[in-house]
Structures are given as structure tokens and as C-alpha cells.
Amino acid sequence: MTEAQGPVISRPAERLPLPNGERNENPPELSFWALVAEDYATHERKLLEPGFWAVALHRFGNWRMGVRPKLLRAPLTALYRLLFLVVNWLWGIDLPYTAKLGRRVRIWHHGGIVLGARAIGSDVHIRHNTTLGLLSRDDLTAKPTIEDRVDIGVGACILGEVTVGHDTVVGANSVVVKDVPPNSVVFGVPARPVKLLRPDPAAGG
After folding, report:
1. C-beta separation of 153 from 174 below 8 A
2. Is residue 186 over pLDDT 70?
């Protein structure tokens, strides 16, 4: 194994089920409004940032699942679905609430963004024309996991049941179809490690 290849990510023998959207999957350490305030600060306190509204709507979509009884949830669900279409059609950001989302996720710019991931960690940066999703229609549960502090370049595609390790940079227009070790820089089609970054002890990497 060369230095550029880095460590191999071990995968559980049995695939975990995808989040089914039946409960609130927002980070539990903060309330809904505290999360929205943090996301607002993450997007430089710019109220008109499309990324902020996409993430805020994602938080709302999850928060409503904790509303009881279900009868009270029905109008909130209708509102969520309407606003989801508005964000998707107006700004081209498709971020379903069933994709588990960490804290301080920044969506830069807008347009052509489809984030159908299994999970996206905290402090992740995502740019326009990014796709996270399925590699094949034959396996509808094979979705990517993005760990903490990943920086995803313009036009990147991360597809299938892959894990992008923490503190990784995915280069512009790269296509990731295999696991990426932590602290890597990957680039190309298909994406390959081109550099290992020095772990930051303060980040726990």
C-alpha cells in the first residue's frame, strides 16, 4: 500500500437501513431554532443565501416529525412539501429531509444540486452542480455517506454505497464511486487519491 492510497475504510458486513423519515433526525444537541440560527451564521448571516433556506427547510422537515398528534403534523407536512418544491424549482437545490444532516453544513451558490445521501456530516462544504446519490437503479439503498469536514468541489458526483472520509477534499468535476480514506485529496474520473493531508489534532482527524 502506497502513501497516496492511505488506510482502507472498513465496511460493516451488513448494510444499515436508510433513514426512513419517520422521526426527527436533526442533531439532538440543539433545538430547532438554535440549529437555524447556527445555519444562518454558517451562511455568513446572509438572509438571501439559497443554501441557508435549503438547510433551514431540511431542519423544518425533520422537526415536524416530532409534532404530536399526527393530525397537527398534517398542515406542517403540506407546507414542507410546498416549500421543498419552491426551493427545488427556484434555486435548483434538492435536499430531502431523509438525508441525515450534521451541523454547520454550507451550500455555496446554487443550481444543479442533488443531495440524496445517506448522511452528510458536520462542517461539510458543498458547491453547485454537485450530485450525491445512486450509482444504479438496481440498488435503491446504496447511497453515499459524507463524513465531517469534507470539502466538495464544483460538479462533483459521489455515487453509490461509498464513504468519503473526514477532512477530505473532493476536486471539481470528480466522480467518486469507491471509498475515500480520511484526510485525502481526490480528483478525476473516476476519482483517485492524489495527496494525503496532515490530520489536524484539534479536529480529531
Report:
1. yes
2. yes
